[in-house]
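Changelog-adjacent note: as of this version, every example in the card shows the full chain rather than a window. The one below runs 403 residues end to end.
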Amino acid sequence: METKLENIVKDNQLMGVSVYTFSGKNEKVYNVGFKNEAQKLPITNDTKFRIASISKAFTALGLMKLYDKKLFKLDDDISNYLGFKVENPNFPNVAITFRMLLSHTSSLQDGTGYDAFLAATYNETPIPNISSILTPTGKSFTTDMFMNQKPGTFFTYCNLNFGLIGTLIEKISKQRFDIYMKNEILKPLGITATFSLQDIEDINVLGTIYRFDEKGWLPNKDDFKGVKPKPSDLSNYVIGNNAVYFAPQGGLRASSSDIGQFVKYLKNDGKTAKILSTETIKLMKTNQWTFAENNGDNYNGFFKQYALGLHHTNLNTSDIIYNPDFFGSFIGHAGDAYGLISDGYFSEKQDFGFVIITNGCLISFEKGKNSSFYKFEEEIFKLVCEDFIKNKPIVKKVKKAKK
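Full-length structure tokens:
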């Protein structure tokens, strides 16, 4: 496996990869390449990366724990919890609900005001209220923050949906987002992933994320050179004001095995940790939206079904992972940001799941030959799936003796 992964890394000019697989109680981790190119530090089992949008699935789990406690209903109007009105100006008086945020059918999109809002969130004191991007009188609001689509009817992938979810978690739990997630989700899963840099004792455990330009490998995220950043002054942070500060949409730092424990938890209907009831974890995995011609942006065939913070794939030619007849649907999430690509999925039909992380490519990622995934993803999908099939235990059916 490692030799084959080394060839994939070399052929696709990747900085490195970390791959985790599980089948039953068997877990494997493979690491190839560097977490830091300048220092030639290899990726290890402990290496944590900023995993991009797989973070959304963790954040969804955080919200669903509050649902499990009956602190809100999925079809409640989020305005009643935020303390200000959130509505699509094109469809006034149509409620935007928790279910819509979780399934990307809220009619929100990351419009032209989104980048300015992020800059204000990280650089202004005090941190602006999230209403500044959502209400027409807000400083960062632009008319293209909402689509001309009725809420609940159209899928468009939107980071702000999960910034709102993080803020709602704060409003309902009355805890700061990163602290709530650590205590209620990450610790129960038995992992040390975190939404806060200050929770990482050894900053060298972080993997740098790279892009490439004419000068060579360009560190793009988490290149701290062994020096832990000074903690931010959050003494004036207002809980429930704007949790986008902690990047619930993409800022979780985790290893491949950290994500693997989350994937196992989903696969086993929540039986590996005490977080959600079995009924709620099954609800979280239940599909909420299916692409049907004009009811959403499927991102060149990548999104065909979406549940509550979880992506269903391996269903159509364009979103294929491997052998749908054998594996059925794969459920989980993918991530793509700053040069990092990540995948974490489990099979509905087989007791199998995997996680893939790469922290950069020397060239632009090459499109896949058979799907909307990248070429290197397709190659690793094939590798881990065929490895599972080859080593799958043969279960012999025992014939019952006739009485």
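Structural remarks: The CA atoms of residues 217 and 276 lie 42 Å apart.
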